[in-house]
């Protein structure tokens, strides 16, 4: 696979270190790039086949920029796998609810049952959702 890992500018050095530390596991290519939610994604086109999201649902101000980026990045055949830890403290349940409510305006969701998660990493508070653009 040709993989692009993304984060903010201040975390690019850490991404490069992680790529270097794991290059013995890579059979394709991996590169690190800056991706700021809500901003232009033209350099990431054409749409990728897969987008893997991990712990991206955490504060309310990020929801709309995140959703804009998902809409801009995905094509009709892009598969988005979203993994997140369900948090029950503070505003977290409300933020999670709002995210999935907004997401369903443009995307279809399929929650992956816990018994289909990797046995070693499975946990009641870890959720995986398969997301596709609505047709």
Describe this structure as you would to a colleague.
The protein is α/β, with parallel strands linked by helices and 135 residues long. The protein folds into two domains: 1-34, no CATH class; 41-133, Rossmann fold. It has three helices and six strands, in the order βαββαβαββ. The protein has helices at 12-21, 63-73, 92-103; strands spanning 2-7, 29-34, 50-54, 79-85, 107-111, 126-133. It is globular and about 35 Å long. One of its GO terms (cellular component) is protein-containing complex. GO terms for molecular function: methyltransferase activity. Keywords: Methyltransferase, S-adenosyl-L-methionine, Transferase.
Low-confidence stretches: none
Strand order within the widest sheet?
3-4-6-5
Count of discrete structural domains: 2
The tally of beta strands, per DSSP, is 6
CATH topology of the largest domain: Rossmann fold
Helical fraction equals 10-25%
As a percent range, the share of strand residues is: 25-35%
Instruction: Give the name of the CATH architecture of the largest domain.
Output: 3-Layer(aba) Sandwich
Radius of gyration: 15 Å
Treating each run of at least 4 consecutive H or I residues as one helix, how many helices? Answer: 3
The gross shape turns out to be: globular
Fourth-level CATH superfamily of the largest domain: Vaccinia Virus protein VP39
Instruction: Give the SSE order as H and E letters.
Output: EHEEHEHEE
Structural class: alpha/beta
Mean pLDDT: 93
**N-to-C CA distance:** 26 Å
Q: What about the largest sheet?
A: 4 strands, mixed
The CATH class assignment of the largest domain is: Alpha Beta
GO molecular function: methyltransferase activity
Protein name: Protein-lysine methyltransferase METTL21D
Pfam families: Methyltransf_16
InterPro entries: Methyltransf_16 (IPR019410), SAM-dependent_MTases_sf (IPR029063)
